[in-house]
Structures are given as C-alpha cells and as structure tokens.
Amino acid sequence: MAETQQQQTFNFCSGPAMLPSEVMATAQSEFLNFQKSGISVMEMSHRSPEFQSILESTEKRLRNLMQIPESYRVLFMQGGASLQFSAVPLNLASQHLRAGFLNTGYWSQKAMTEAAKYVDVIEVGSSEGSRFKSLPDVFDVDFNELDYLHITPNETIGGVECWPEFGEIACPIVADMSSCILSRSIDVSQFGVIYAGAQKNIGPAGLGIVIVKDELLVSSELDDDIPRLLNYRTVAKNDSMANTPPTYAIYLANLVFGWLQEQGGVAEIEQKNIKKAEMLYAAIDDSRLIYNDIDISLRSRMNVPFFFHDENLQSAFLEEAQNQGLLNLSGHRSQGGCRASIYNAMPIEGVQSLIEFMKKFENSHV
Ligand code: PMP
After folding, report:
1. Is 179 in the pocket of ligand 1 (CB under 6 A)?
2. What is the DSSP letter of 220?
3. What distance in angstroms lies between residue 81's CA and the mean position of ligand 1's atoms?
4. How many Å apart are CA 199 and CA 182, to the nearest integer?
5. Is 107 in the pocket of ligand 1 (CB under 6 A)?
6. Residue 199 C-alpha to ligand 1 middle, in angstroms?
7. pLDDT tens digits, residue range 32-87?
C-alpha cells in the first residue's frame, strides 16, 4: 500500500510484488544511515560486523518462521528462482541423472526445459489434459530410479495451488515455492530442497533462497560442470558468501521476516490469506461479468486470475481500476485476462477495495 498525494494505491502485481508498507518505511528511514553506522546498507562491506549481523538475523528469522530443522541449510543465492532450474539438477543428479517432474503449468514446464539440459526428465504426472485447471493425473513411475521429484505447489500464472501428497517416496522432493513460500504453514522435513525467488513474499527480485537438507549436499554426477556459484556445497561452506551476496536484498528480506513475525508468524498470515482469497473468489463467483474456472479445491490463495465473458470489457476494467489506484491487474502475457496477486503484504483493505470496484464496474456495465 502506498500513498500518493491524492490517492491510496494497491499494487496487485505478481512480482516484483508489493512489500509491507511498514517495511518500506523502515527501509526509507534507514536508507542513508543504517543504525548510526553513517552509511547505507547498500554501501556496506558484506564482511562488516553490521552486515554479518543482518545476514545472521535474516537466517534466524526465516528458520523461526518456517520451523526449519537443524538438519537443513539455508542458502542465499542470486539469479532468482530461474537459476535454481539449473542449480537443482546440477546439484542433485547424484546417481541416476534422471529427475521426475509434476507438470502443473507454466513454471513447472520452465523448470523441466532447463533440467532437460542436464538430466533425463520424466513426467510423473500432468494436468495438461485439463489445461492445468484440475488435479494432475499421476503416472506409474518408479521413484527409486529418480534423483529427485520436482513440484511447483503454486503456479503463479495459472493461479493453481496444488500440494500433492506423495507420502514416503524413495527420492527427495524439490519444491519451487516462489509464489507461496511463507503464505501457509508447511512441514519443511517433507522436502529435500525448497527454493524461491524473493520478489513475492520475501523482498527484492534477484535474491534466491534455497533450503536444502544437509544429506543432499553430496557430490553429484555433474560436479565438474557446476559453476562455482551454483554449487550448493560451495555456497553452504562459505555461509552464502562465496562471492559478494545481494546485500541490500538480504537486508530487506530481514525486515520482511521481522514484519511477518510481528504479524504473528506464518500460521497467522495463513488465516488472513485464506480470508482474502475467500472474499475475492466469492466476489468473482457472484459476478455476471467475470469468472475463474480453476477447480475450486485448487484455486490459488496468492494469484487469482479472472476473465471476462465479454472480452471487450477487459480494457475498460483495467483502465478504470488503474485510475482508482488498483494497479497491475492484467494477466500474464501468455494467458491474457486479469490477475490479482494477493501475497502476504496485500492488506485486506486492498482486496476489499478491489471487490467494491468490481461491483461498481458491474453495475455500470450490465
Ligand atoms: N517459479 C515461479 C513459481 C514463479 O512464479 C517465478 C516468477 N514469477 C519463477 C519461478 C521465476 O522467478 P525469477 O524471475 O526470480 O527467476
């Protein structure tokens, strides 16, 4: 939420997404002079005691928020989520040079395409048959022959959130949680690797967070090909300082994690996220102008796409919304339509404003 001279705005961008207004205010107040150091965090050595303590606090807060077990390492990397599409196969192809993927949409497919450069990609399930709108069909696959299974629990573009239960399987599960990390309680111990780009629920774009089980930090079949900065063991050994880390992004992530703790943590924000999503989907389902046709049980709490029955109304809707301070509601270029991203930082008032605007628009267009 930001305040211009005349108008309050709410930013529904899918990412880089809005950050909590309190965090932005703190960052602004500390921008030129971080805690009496006389300089900005942006200008500070990553080896300085001040930055060391920011880095330690960031990790500690994340561990606390997600209840990350001691047997996992937290790595702060660069290249957002997409570079992990390469890092994961390079690091985890320890035996079979074969990885399984659950194909739930755009971002799963991006991850598969990149992994296919290094390992054999096996589709263990897919919802492509329903154009990624319903539960994926799971195929008969021997998990013993896979180095890992990759899932994308929240497909940011399709607006599909799917948390499959595989139970005890013979290979580690790797999850791209870019658009759902910290939005709900999860059991980290179910995963071998969790990774996320920061620009939705964490902080500025470019930072990538990787949570990896210690026992997976072993040599991989592809060791000789792993660029140093993509090698999890190198990054872990150097405490995320194998080169200069993205210091300012880490500083902002630390503030966001602190803000989330003040909100009552993940369990508390999850309840708010449920409420926001329920309100918005109810408004869409009640509307005569717009619809969302994702299976109800799979509707994303974070990214809510909606489409006009009469497509001619869409541009007027987007333009009028923008004029009302409801920003960035157009859908992804691959999909069209509209999309409201309502991550942790989106206050309930933002969702209420959007719903009121939808109703007003409907009243003047039916
Ligand atoms: N995975 C998911 C689920 C995403 O939503 C995104 C970005 N929207 C990415 C990966 C790619 O992230 P980045 O741009 O940080 O590489």
Report:
1. yes
2. -
3. 5
4. 13
5. yes
6. 9
7. 999 999 999 999 999 999 999 999 999 999 999 999 999 999 999 999 999 999 99
